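Illustration: FMN-binding glutamate synthase family protein.
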Amino acid sequence: MTFMRLNVRFVPFAAALVLTLVSFIGLLLTLSVWWLGAFVVAAAFAVIGVHDLRQPRHAILRNYPIIGHLRYMIESVGPEFRQYFFESDRDEVPFSREIRGLVYQRAKGVEDKRPFGTVESVYASGFNWLTHSMVPKTIHDTDFRVRIGGPDCTRPYEASVYNISAMSFGALSAHAIAALNRGAKAGGFAHDTGEGGISRYHREGGGDLIYQIASGYFGCRNDDGTFSGEKFAAQARDPQVKMIEIKLSQGAKPGHGGMLPASKISPEIAEARGIPMGRDCVSPAAHSAFSTPREFMEFIGRLRALADGKPVGFKLCIGHRREFMCLVKAMIETGIAPDFIVVDGKEGGTGAAPLEFVNRVGMPMLEGLNFVHNTLRGAGLRRRIRIGAAGKIVSAYDIARAMALGADWCNSARGYMFAIGCIQAQSCHTNRCPAGIATQDPRRMAALNVEDKSARVARFHKNTRHALAELVGAAGLTHPSQFLPYHFMFRSKNNEFLDGNEAFEDLPEGFLLTGSDHPDLHSWIDRWQRASAETFVAERMPQSRFAS
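Result:
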């Protein structure tokens, strides 16, 4: 019995060898096409078995020739099996079936209501909700907009409160970029280019663009990879470009660079990025155009001038809080401030990244947003600078909550990916996206119908705005900008709940400048005192209260 248990794993291989021999004999005797087919199939399995036994890399294949491949096949389709057969409607991996279904319904323009009450655990820690008014309002104009542009901006932009977040051409297919941009054009909202430059597919749709530049300076770089003011001006002054966004970091992989291998660089990608063919394209972790907070503010001022007065801002995921305060101090000392700041949460993530970065690096969006909002309030700059928020913002409730905690508008990447047909296969980095979205394979992307998907993008935006208007009216308000932390409740431990003013309170205007002695603000004041406009390097680090 022991011998049989040890050797039963070789039965498929032995069977392949026997069938190969039998079919070969049958072929010699009859010259039948059926025997030929049987021989080819059996011989193929026999060759696989021989290879499995001889290869040195995979112990499973050596111990289980032929049938060991089933393990790898099942593993390769594991995400799809979990998603379609085992995942419940509310399992988040990273977006639940319930949320994806909501996007699909709104993008298609079909019924998005739910019967029979909530399935949320309303008494569980972390649950939060919107407080409603006994005198709700009916809102007819749902085209909610926010003006972005500070006192140094001569060409402010009237942005929708819900726009397409940064996703590069190269990461997304040509058809996906075209569908998103045409949808933005039809819906009257903005499309962030991502750091990969402005491609022909961004331009042909005619939708408003937010031109993002990052450490690679794609579309505005010299041959050595440094920033080119001349090339930037040519891009930024295009009438289709409405704002300029400098990416310092992103939620998917803050503090991490990237590389696009030469094998994945097509002529169209090279054209958009301004890079040569046949060479790896490196995105450094840090910028080369500036290295101190003061230099960064001067860079912002330079870009605003080169862009002929258009709004210039930056995007980041909060890491060291003191470093953000360094930027704010530089704004005060130089008199140069961005027109906007986009706060990305670590839960953001269209970019593939190491697991440690995906799971454990960077501040979540709600906390990061509230920190940026209160730091600007404390420095007396909040009224001058608009704040955008990004990071799993898909539903109208997500938008409302973010705006209550400090955002002036919101961006979404994966929400709009769902709108054009993403099924969350999580194969974005493999070039084998089944929906033709995150791939450069011409045959796969050809399956994505640009006309149909662009209409879905516009409908998703419109229907989400409509749902947002219903939430605004239910709270007794007339515009989402009127949401305050007060309008939300957050359940903490032991079934207790906090008013939004307690969970995410607004701190006093100017308290960092006056050096408030309020005990609850001591950590803020200490961090502010350790920040410098001249360097990101800390002169001293905070110590434990028990440190000598």
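Reading the tokens back as a structure: The longest helix spans residues 450-474.
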